[in-house]
Amino acid sequence: MTNHCGEEDQLTSRFCPHCGSQVAESDRQCTVCGAQLPGPTPAAAPTASSVSGAAPAAGGSAQAAGAWPTAASQQATPAATYAAYQPAAVVRTAQAQGTPAAAPGAPVYPQGYQAYQAYQTAQTQQGHAATPYGYGYPYPYYYSPYPAQQKKPGETYAKVLSWILVFLCGLSALGGLVVLLIGIATALGSVSALAGEGGSLTVLAQLAGFGLALLLGGAFGMYYSVTGIMRRPSPKFTLPPAWVMLALTLLALVGGVALWHVNAFGYTTPGTALGVLPLAALCGIAPAATILAFTSQRLGDPATRRHVWMSLFWGAAGATLLAAVLELVLGVIVAVLMNVPFSTALNTNLTSGNPAQSLFILIEISIIAPVVEEGLKPLGALLIIRRLRTPGQAFLVGMAGGIGFDLVETIGYIGMGQADWVYVAIERIGAGLLHGVGAGMAALGWYYLINGKGVPLRWLKGIGCGVYAVVQHAVFNGSNLIALLIPGLSAPLAQPLYLVKLPFESAALIFMVLYVVILTVLIVVTGRIRNAKGMAPPTPKAPAVPTLPYPAYLYSTYPGYQGVPAQTPTTTGGSRS
Amino acid sequence: MTMEGIPQYSQYPNYPYMYPPATAPQPAADQPTKPVGRPRLYALIVGVIFTILIVAAIALAAYSPSLAPTESGAIPRGWTKVYDANLTAGDDGRWDQSQGCAFGSSGLNADASSSSNAALCAFKPSETQDLASGGFLLEMTLTPAANITSEAVPLIVLGSDTSGAVFVFADQQGNYTICQANCDTATRQGVLESGSTATWHGDPYVANTFAVQFVQQGLNNNPTITLFINGEQVAQIDVSQAINVSAGAAIPFGVGSLSGGAEVYTHATLYTGGVSSL
């Protein structure tokens, strides 16, 4: 097979066999996709032997094999050799007749065979390029026109999606700005900013988390959508080493715990909401970033910044908003069906003592919430699933959606702790695992279902991943309630645990155990998929060009002709018919 | 010179002619590029920014308490501590136990969890002495919420039927309300001020302090109430529309809990500007 990464006979251009990008002659690695480029294969390279020797007489018979060029002694580089044989008149003719010249940025390809000067005939006809060989081919040869540049599969879909995203992201950014302004107005309206009367960390954290998600998500989304439309390649998504992120997480949490002790023992007051909000938010962000960094690095940083950030901001802004609405609506519907008071749908007090209410809450947090959230978080990955080439990419991009969801949710929960926000931050240190692994598994399931053609047990894997995500979430959410309902377990769980002097509910131990279990799942899954073979890049439909420049029957007259395979691979992986 | 499955002829070097790629090569936007060295730089920048943010956030959180008005700074010179009692030690005779209050081992227990009326524990000296005209500050320490089986709702009441009354209460999430007698929080009728505060300990195993300061000439020279939670000022409002100080009657005060809730008080401290002892 002709290697099209650089051995097209008449060209000095080389192309990557993996992505088809043009690469420099000296490149050993594709600058676009990073694939190893094969070195030159002298056996396939043309030499002077191809073009030297005695030429047959013009108009000579095709059977005059003995008159065809024979092996020559001289060696020359292909470019030099062919440059000497360029028939300027033919080229001028072709261009004059409207044969498209190479567009800027597009590679230059020779049209048909290069004219062999010695065979040049005077049969150039009006409107047609001259036939380069003078062996009596009676008809004007129609050069196949330069094949129209075809769009890659799904390119139109991607472009439409990108423009829709630009619009939605603009709205999102505006919405985020409004939410943040409301938050600032709330803070300034009730207190005198930083030096005021406390302020509510609950309100500020929720406004800041959701507002920033909308604003940053909108801004980043617009940027990445536009760069996607411009087809600017996105770099790899990377984060600092996971151990660095873990150290930063510990720094933030240790700082928070130390400040809590200083406040709780009366040395200072707890401080204002605006004053503690940045640290509280970072105590929610840092653990999630650690989990994302760990996963990305364990998978070999397989995804682009565009995909990861877009998915993350979808999870933070879109999925949280939709999940809140859907969970409320479904909760109310179930409450009506169960004849539970409407107000209970908004109240998740686990200690009501009413069996009907406990059952309703169990349904709400262990069925409705997991199904809704695990359905929404990986939607960002699902939208681009056809562009994700490996299970690792799908898992990481899906996980980013879960991490985004976790960021907004966890920052909101941390705010509810008010002066004791740090104990909530510690209790939710692994919430990124719950949401991230769940969303990653759900996205992996979608990947197998949509892209996994040829994967053994594809349907089982796809559905299994999705079911795992929901069950994991259901078990996590329901664990606390189930533990409280188990006789003999509720009393020990009511006793506090202490981190120095900072008290925790013992029920937090259940969460910690589940975090360890989910972390184990993450390590196992990423270990299995990091080297998994991905799907092949998309293949464009075969161009409507002739397989051979001349009718095959002419070739059949050549001695030694043994036929041409019906299909010969193309540089883009497609096939000609 | 044989390519895969295709015979080659030395005479026809260009056979078989392979067409160039039909799709013009374009950067594959899906695939991450690998600019050598840049990912490390990017990661380094992210790491440095993260570190700076965390250190700055710790510094801001440590500094912010000094910016907020505090309870200790609100006690005027000349005021004296006239009462400082550990309520877990038992009944000291200072608190009225006829309206839903009782002393127990955990402190002064105001239980209205199963009552349609609020539980009120009047501070007896305030009924017999004028502690309000010179101003006072009453600080109550609450038991951790985990020690209360029902919803914890601390309440400080100021005033009487003749003078008018003000209720100051909070819930377990740190949402506080200051309102007139017979106010309705659902419709906000009679609510003077409400909000939520970051100074409230949301951890159910951590105790909160709840303090109210009353001065007759405060904001706009009107009777003013200031609410402190855990030593930090949370709200300050003019209560002239709720309390009539010109009536000449004493303004009693006390603690308790709202209907449906309960509270246990473990410590009480009173500062006044009008008297030097009870």
Structural commentary:
The complex is a heterodimer of chains A (577) and B (278). Chain A is mainly α and 577 residues long. Helices cover 53% and strands 2% of the residues of chain A. Chain A contains 16 helices and four strands. Chain A has helices at residues 78-84, 88-96, 155-190, 201-229, 242-264, 273-298, 305-338, 355-376, 379-383, 391-416, 421-427, 431-451, 458-485, 490-494, 508-529, 552-555, and strands at residues 14-15, 22-23, 496-499, 502-505. In chain A, the strands form two sheets. Chain A has a two-stranded antiparallel ribbon with strand order 1-2. In chain A, strands 3-4 form a two-stranded antiparallel sheet. In chain A, strand 3 and strand 4 form a beta hairpin. In chain A, helix 7 (305-338) runs antiparallel to helix 8 and helix 8 packs antiparallel against helix 13 (458-485). Chain A is globular, with a radius of gyration of 33 Å. Residues 1-12, 40-137, 191-197 and 561-577 of chain A have low confidence and may be disordered. Chain B is mainly β and 278 residues long. Chain B has a single domain (70-272), classed as Jelly Rolls, CATH 2.60.120.560. Chain B is built from two helices and 14 strands. Chain B has helices at 38-63, 124-128, and strands at 80-86, 101-104, 107-111, 119-122, 136-142, 154-160, 164-170, 175-184, 189-196, 209-215, 224-229, 232-238, 253-257, 262-272. In chain B, the strands form two sheets. In chain B, strands 1, 2, 3, 5, 10, 11, 12 and 14 form an eight-stranded antiparallel β-sheet that branches. Chain B has a six-stranded antiparallel β-sheet with strand order 4-13-6-7-8-9. In chain B, strand 10 and strand 11 form a beta hairpin. Mean pLDDT of chain B is 85; it is low at 22-29.
